[in-house]
Amino acid sequence: MNATINLEKKHFPVLLNELVNIISPLYGGTFIDCTFGEGGYSKKILENSKNKIIALDRDYEVKNFADKLKIEFNHRFDFYNLKFSDLNKFKTKKPKCIIFDLGYSFNQIKNLEKGLSFQSKSKLNMQMGLNEFSCHEVIHNMKKENLNKIFKFFGDEKYSKKISNKIDRERKKKILKTDDLVRIIKSIKKNKTKINQSTKVFQALRIFVNKEISELISGLINAFNILPIGGAIAVVTFHSIEDKIVKYFFKHYSEDKNYSRYLPSPAKATKYFDLQLKKPIVPSKNEIFLNPQSRSAKLRYAIKIKHNCDFLDFKKKFEYLLNIENLCREI
Ligand SMILES: C[S@@+](CC[C@H](N)C(=O)[O-])C[C@H]1O[C@@H](n2cnc3c(N)ncnc32)[C@H](O)[C@@H]1O
C-alpha cells in the first residue's frame, strides 16, 4: 500500500467479490476474520444469516467499527483485540475458513499519529497495536549496521547503507521525527518513478516494528492447527515478502513431492492442502482504477486435507527473516 493519503478517500475492502466467490461454498458456520480493520469482509460474510464471525484485530481503535457490527448482528459477531498469532485461543470453534487481509487499513494511515503515512510530522511510531516497541526506539537505539539490514531485507532498499549512515549522523544532533526520516531518504534517493522514495524504508520499518514476519508465520501455522479438515485459509498479501511466505506455505504443503530435508525418507512426503488456485487472484483493472492502493494485492487460498504437519521446512525457509526480526533484542 502506498503511504501517501488523500483524506477525501474512503476505505475499500480489497478483492471483496473475489473473496466471497471462493469462500461462499463454505457458507453456514463460523468464519474467522483475522484482520477485521473497518469490517468490510466481516460485514459482507454476515449478510448470509447462516454465518457467524469471530473477528480479530491488533488495533484497539477498530473497536468503533466492531461495536457497530455487534449491534447489527448480535450473537453472530464477536470481536477480540488480539494478534492473529493468538489464533490458538479459538481451537474449539471449528471454523469453516480463516481469512487474513494483511497490511494496514486506510483508517490507520489516515491517523497521522500512527506515523504510517509519509505526510506525518509526528514522533516516529508505526505501531499497529499490541506492540513491544515503536519506530522511535528502532531509529534511535539500533546500531546503524542493523538498520541497514532491516532496510535491505525487509524493504529491498538499494540505498540501505547510505540511508542508515545518514540516520546515524543526524540522530546524534536531534531527535528524529517522521518528517525527518522522509527528508533524509529524499536527500539520498532521487525519485525516478511515481513511487514515493520512502516506500521501501517505511515498509521495512513497519514490518520490523510490528514483527510482521513472525506474526504471519505463526498466524498461518496456528490457522492450520485449529482448522478442521475441509476448512480453508484465504490470504490477501500486499508486498513480495508476505506473498513469498504465503505462496511457499500453500505450495510446499500441497505437493506430494515436498520431501523434507528433516525427514528420513522421501516416501514420507504428505499433502496437507488442496491448493485451489495455482496462481493468485489479483484485482481487476476496474478495482485498481477505483482503488489504486489495491494494485499490489494477491489473494491465495487452500483447503486443509490432513492434520498434524510439523512445518519444519516452512520455519527453516524463512529463518533468515526471523533472525532480522530478532535484532530487536538490541533495543
Ligand atoms: C488491510 S486491513 C483489513 C481491512 C479489512 N479486511 C476490511 O475489509 O475492512 C488490515 C488490518 O489488519 C490488522 N492487523 C495487521 N496485522 C495484524 C495481526 N498480526 N494481528 C491482528 N490484526 C492485524 C491491522 O491492524 C488492520 O486493521
Describe the structure.
This protein is an alpha/beta fold and 331 residues long. It has a seven-stranded mixed sheet, sandwiched between helices. It has 14 helices and seven strands. 40% of the residues lie in helices and 10% in strands. The model has no long low-confidence stretch (mean pLDDT 94). The protein starts with 15 loop residues before the first helix and ends in a 6-residue tail after the last helix. Bound molecules: S-adenosylmethionine. S-adenosylmethionine is lined by residues 13, 34-35, 37-41, 56-59, 62, 83-84, 101, 103-105, 128-129, 215.
Fold topology:
Elements (H helix, E strand, L loop, with lengths): L15 H8 L6 E4 L6 H7 L5 E5 L6 H11 L3 E4 L16 E5 L4 H5 L24 H7 L2 H12 L4 H12 L6 H11 L10 H11 L2 H15 L5 E6 L2 H13 L20 E3 L9 H6 L7 E7 L7 H6 L1 H7 L6
Parallel strand pairs: 1-2, 1-4, 2-3, 4-5
Antiparallel strand pairs: 5-7, 6-7
Bound molecules: S-adenosylmethionine (SAM).
S-adenosylmethionine binds next to α2.
How would you summarize this macromolecular structure in one to three sentences?
This protein is an alpha/beta fold and 331 residues long.
**Count of domain modules:** 2
CATH class of the largest domain: Alpha Beta
Please indicate the percent range of residues in DSSP E strands (runs of 2 or more).
5-15%
Number of strands: 7
| Biggest sheet strand line-up | 3-2-1-4-5-7-6
Bound small molecules, by name, code or SMILES, are: S-adenosylmethionine
- The string of secondary-structure elements, in order, is HEHEHEEHHHHHHHEHEHEHH
The CATH architecture of the largest domain is 3-Layer(aba) Sandwich
State mean pLDDT (0 to 100 scale): 94
